[in-house]
Amino acid sequence: MGRQRLLKSGRLLGLILVTLTVAASQSPQAADTRQNGGWILAHDAPFPGKYEDFAFPDAKNGWLANAGGDILHTADGGATWALQARGLGRLRSVDFLDARRGFAGTINGVLHATTDGGATWTDITSTLPKTTLGFCGMTHVGEHTHIVGKYTGGAADYFFSPDGGRTWRVTDLSQHAYGLVDVSFLDDSVGFIGGQAKVASPGVGPAMILKTTDGGRSWRPVFTHDGGRGFAWKIFPVSSTLIYAGLQSQDGIYRIAKSTDAGDHWLVKNVATDRPQGPGIQGIGFVDERTGWVGGFFAGMYATSDGGETWTAVPMDDRTINRFERVGGSMFTASVRGVLRYDPPARR
If DSSP codes are grouped into helix, strand and coil, which group holds residue 347? Predict the structure, then answer.
């Protein structure tokens, strides 16, 4: 009798597990995952322009800024999001040093700061040592804060604060660049800036990347593309040696750049050809050394599982993807539909 009860219990448990598995596979989220290359809509928040930038200073607290001046906040690692601030201008970048202190910059040169986790923001532009033209990228390592911008108008300024925004210095990088888009640091010493190279005719230079090994005191070009007018739009380090960059070309060829030696040398990889001319790739992100995506001014994404050697189109209802952010083992990005999340198969 005891054995029969055990067998019946086992069959019942098996039936429950099968039922739950079938139900889960038929849920809208599971179907969305299968159809969208593993990506789900984590937060439904349609916006007709661009969601510009993420900031996650820890595994729980995150912020997302859009070009309409809105900032969204999550306190549970991206499971839920809520609108936290509005009316901050044409936001382009956001960064938080910790769960309370952060910065947000606009494309027309206003720098906001918060000390209460984004509940209130203050315009601190007047504390900077130079009149600003605009901001496109910002990051930090500890208290060391780095801000660059903007992508056009000859704005090649690099702002640095050694003390979390209490004091600032500025470096004019116009000898190398016409515009600056993104900044990323591997540690206190080694960092990169992506943008557009300076050439004789303003605004038509190719994509370029600058590198520093002294914490931003000096910069040197390490990559200049030969594909005509463009930008190194986003830089995504995977490790201290492996770094990817999204190249925004204008010639109908989508490309990335890849370095395996800490950014001293770069190889260009084609993502797609025969695409419409004009701005293409913007965002790039890798959840590990081989698995990554690009997005931009097109519908869906392109995905790679071999470190950027080959790419496959991922049809989606999403477009205008500008930034990818890795949080733990998951990846976040945002499109015109709202916040998207990718969890590796083992985590689903």
Answer: helix
Tell me, what CATH number does 228's domain have?
2.130.10.10
Q: What contacts 226, CB < 8 A, 6 or more positions away?
A: 206
C-alpha pair distances (Å), 139 with each of 15, 94, 185, 205: 51, 8, 7, 25
The token duo for 158 is 């690099």
Same structural domain for residues 22 and 91?
Answer: no
Quote the CA–CA distance of 105 and 111 in Å, as a whole number: 5
Structural domain range at position 234:
40-347
Per-residue model confidence (pLDDT) at position 278: 86
Tell me, yes or no, whether 115 and 215 share the same domain: yes
Considering only the C-alpha atoms of the chain, give the largest distance between any 2 of them, rounded to a whole number of Å. 90
**Same domain (yes/no): 135, 258:** yes
- pLDDT higher than 80, residue 31: no
Measured between alpha carbons, how far is 146 from 185 in angstroms, rounded to an integer?
9
The answer to whether residues 71 and 212 belong to one domain is yes
DSSP state of 173: -
Euclidean distance between CA atoms 27 and 24, whole angstroms:
5
Q: Quickly tell me which residue has 């299968």 as its tokens.
A: 34
- β-partners of residue 283 are 295
State the DSSP code for 27: S
Least confident of 1-15, 94-108, 128-142: 1-15
Verify that 230 and 332 share a domain, yes or no: yes
Indicate the Cα dihedral angle 11, 17, 22, 27, nearest 10°: 150
Instruction: Report the predicted TM-score, pTM, of the whole model to 2 decimal places.
Output: 0.89
One-character DSSP codes across 65-91: EETTS-EEEESSTTSS-EEEE----SE
- Report angle CA 46, 49, 52 to the nearest 5 degrees: 95
Residue 71's closest CA among 112, 40, 30? Answer: 112
Q: Residue 68: which of 93, 87, 45 has the closest Cα?
A: 87
Q: What is the mean pLDDT of residues 114-126?
A: 98
d(CA 11, CA 288) in angstroms, rounded, equals 40
Residues 6+ away with beta carbon under 8 Å from 153:
133, 134, 179
